[in-house]
């Protein structure tokens, strides 16, 4: 085999050194810088993505806080509106109750006046009827003629004495 021939060793070593030197130079000056550049770009891209993700996370947290504040504010507004409406309805209810009470008082006064008129009418009718009956009884017992106008004052006096 020619590779094992000792006469060709110096030329093989020469070409080996040249080939490896060229390979070393190509790898060191061409391939490794490109690989380093790609690694650096990837690191930069990853760090930029991390920074952007942190910024987005912070923005989302701010949005969540603003959302919570708006929800709390809306809840407070709703509760205050409910309180106002409850107070307003209570006031309206009370005013309606007062109006009804006044109407009831007016009706009560009307009924009381009607009752007192009715009572007076009944008393008058009772006095008239009693006087008529008394006149008839007296006229039958005594031969003297008495009218109801003579007896009415007596019954009125008796009625007033019963009241007092």
Secondary structure blueprint with pairings:
Elements: H1 9-141, H2 148-163
Helix pairs in contact: 1-2
Describe the structure.
With 164 residues, this protein is mostly helical. It has one domain (2-163). The chain has 2 helices and no strands. The longest helix is centred in the middle third of the chain and has 133 residues, at 9-141. The protein is rod-shaped, with a radius of gyration of 62 Å. It starts with 8 loop residues before the first helix and ends with a helix. The model has no long low-confidence stretch (mean pLDDT 89).
Query: Would you report the number of β strands?
Result: 0
The total count of helices amounts to 2
Largest sheet: none
Structural class designation? mainly alpha
- Write down the overall geometry: rod-shaped
Poorly predicted runs of 5 or more residues: none
Helix content: over 70%
- Averaged pLDDT, please? 89
State the separation between the terminal residues, measured CA to CA. 163 Å
Rg: 62 Å
Number of domains: 1
Approximately what portion of the residues adopt beta-strand conformation? under 5%
* Secondary-structure element pattern, one letter each: HH
